[in-house]
Amino acid sequence: MTPAIQAEGVRHAFGEVVALDGLDLSVEPGVVFGLLGPNGAGKTTLVRVLATLLVPTDGAARVLGHDVVQQPLAVRRAIGLAGQFAAVDMELTGRENLEMVGRLYRLSAAEARSRASDVLERFGLEDAADRRVSTYSGGMRRRLDLGASLTGRPPVILLDEPTTGLDPRTRQELWATVDELRRDGTTVLLTTQYLEEADRLAQRIAVVDHGKIVAEGTAAELKATVGSEVLAVRVAPEAASGAAEALADLTSETPLVNAGVGEIRLAVADPSASAEAVRRLDERGVPIAAIELQQPSLDDVFLTLTGKRAA
Fold this sequence. Notes:
Blueprint: E1 5-14, E2 17-27, E3 32-36, H1 43-50, E4 58-63, E5 66-67, H2 72-78, E6 79-82, H3 94-104, H4 109-122, H5 138-150, E7 156-160, H6 168-183, E8 187-191, H7 195-201, E9 204-209, E10 212-217, H8 219-224, E11 229-235, H9 240-247, E12 256-258, E13 263-268, H10 273-283, E14 288-294, H11 298-306
Parallel strand pairs: 3-8, 3-9, 6-7, 7-8
Antiparallel strand pairs: 1-2, 1-4, 4-5, 9-10, 11-13, 11-14, 12-13
Helix pairs in contact: 3-4, 3-5, 4-5
């Protein structure tokens, strides 16, 4: 089966700054593929390469078998794109924006009007459909931009942090839309800094760091790489560093320390590690505010692989 999205050794640099460093990626058709990574990891650069907005310095990328450099028009006809910032015409109405996008997809005028009406209804913008976009709130513009990416019903959609700045209700509505697209056979590449979003939506997830894929799998597979359980210990912030040192050899990984809140997290294979942690901290006279064994989360995966938080 031909991958819906494929990148082979893709490299891109902005002067001396290497954004993509030989990245390899293969996305099967009809799935939601989540792309996680800290700021500056290369996620947006990859999306821009796949959308033909950037030419890779080296390597090759294809969408539905079309090379992004050699066949850019075919790629553009196959994709919908919603970037990090709403790209809508402020002087047009919401309906006019969507109809314009439909016409750019070579829909007939009647079909473009019909698709625009469908999108306006789906994203709760019917009442504002005939107002100029300059009168829209930021959240409304974002929803309109997301809707525009769906107007042509493309087989591949690139969503670059699509829910940034959306209220919880609109975010849930977008999640439902992404689920619906997948059920209809659409391939979705989703970059996000909301770990629960990737956990909820993506059938496969890749973690990007320093321009490369450092881990890939299902959410369950990635969580399994951390350890069977995670021991979370909360102490006074000023005692966090010493507590982490006392607990360091209870795990094969470096403990993850959030000194601001006094939390230490470490992957452990044996549940009895919690009793040993209490004993060691008691010996040092470190009061424990809370201690709990938890299942690994994508946050634990992210921190273990990159040493950074997602946002």
